[in-house]
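User: Good morning. I'm curious how zinc ion would be positioned relative to this chain. Could you predict the structure with it bound?
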Amino acid sequence: MQKIKVNLADRGYDIIIGSGILNQLGNFTIEAGLGKSIAVITNDVVAPLYLEAVKTSLRGAGLKVIAIVIPDGEKYKVFETAIDIYSKLLKAGIDRSHSIIALGGGVIGDLAGFVAATYLRGIAFVQVPTTLLAQVDASVGGKVGINLPQGKNMVGAFYQPKFVFIDVDVLSTLRKEVFIEGFSEVIKHGVIRSEKYFSLIENNVKKLLNFDRDLLIETVVGSIRIKADVVSRDERESSLRVILNYGHTIGHAIETLTGYTRFLHGEAVSVGMAAAGKAAVLKGLFSEKDLERQNNLLKSVGLQVNVKNVKEGEIIPLLQVDKKVKDGRVKFVLPERIGKVLVTDDVKIEILKRSLASIIG
Ligand SMILES: NC(=O)c1ccc[n+]([C@@H]2O[C@H](COP(=O)([O-])OP(=O)(O)OC[C@H]3O[C@@H](n4cnc5c(N)ncnc54)[C@H](O)[C@@H]3O)[C@@H](O)[C@H]2O)c1
Ligand SMILES: [Zn+2]
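Assistant: Good morning! Here's the predicted structure, ligand included:
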């Protein structure tokens, strides 16, 4: 079992990572002093797989447990679901001395975290992420939120969990494409911050895809170290944290354009990284060789670096509504080499068009 500290003064917390540790969640919850009653929020895909184990562990530690099971899917990360959860929490008598556990992927983590941040002006919560994407990314850093019809994650908060509890064994039940999409955030962390971490993934693709537990732990730990370091330097995304959006400006536009149905988030981010990498090459910042290295790794884990049936002219207007726009200019995170990026709003339309053209088809 490994422990990583996220340093955020009085909001700092531990991330616990291991294999086969789900049955110890109760002990950690007690140690963290999270109250007598716990509301576990999960969905109808994860519940049949892991809810019993979680309940047994919590009850075994002497806690009272209620479970709130919502339907699976991004389309339930909305206000209506939050309102439904608030009323279930009230009915179960959950008060400010109690806590919420988010058991699921990024959708559950964001939604349950948002509920925790707002219910009774905020109650304690714990993240138990069950997808690779949620383990290496969404569960760390305290961004919680819900979607509006106008766009994703448009309402939310920075609200840190009391701890994050990660058992990599739960990844074994993921659909293959959901497992694979998580690698786009993994590879992103390498490109933005650490060539060493990038190489670790590069040298172990086969083992990772074959579910080598030790390597999975090393991968999750490595990603979390990178994300935790960035977040603890800039919790509220006033500067450095922006680099975590590498590949996301164009990735989000592709998700929006395709109505969130053709691509999983990580799949769109993979294409977005290929486009941002190309823009960096065209600006003379990044070498062709490094772009190829990035794209080869994305492809070798099973991700794509292009998109069919969309036009660059459809993507460009969508970049303007992204939250990363400041004073009307689109901010791009561009790589200088594997392990280092910069943030710039100086990407001329010609370069943008040519980089988008490189990912279409
Ligand atoms: N807060 C952040 O910093 C942050 C960062 C990245 C993404 N996100 C958000 O995360 C969400 C995407 O997260 P995701 O990719 O985890 O999607 P998800 O939560 O929809 O999970 C993907 C699918 O896997 C299922 N699943 C989850 N765990 C499973 C398991 N162990 N076995 C079998 N099936 C399982 C889910 O029910 C779902 O069908 C988006 O809403 C995105 O906005 C948030
Ligand atoms: Zn992402």
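The chain has two domains: 2-173, 176-359. The first strand starts at residue 2 and ends at 6.
Let me know if you'd like a different ligand tried.
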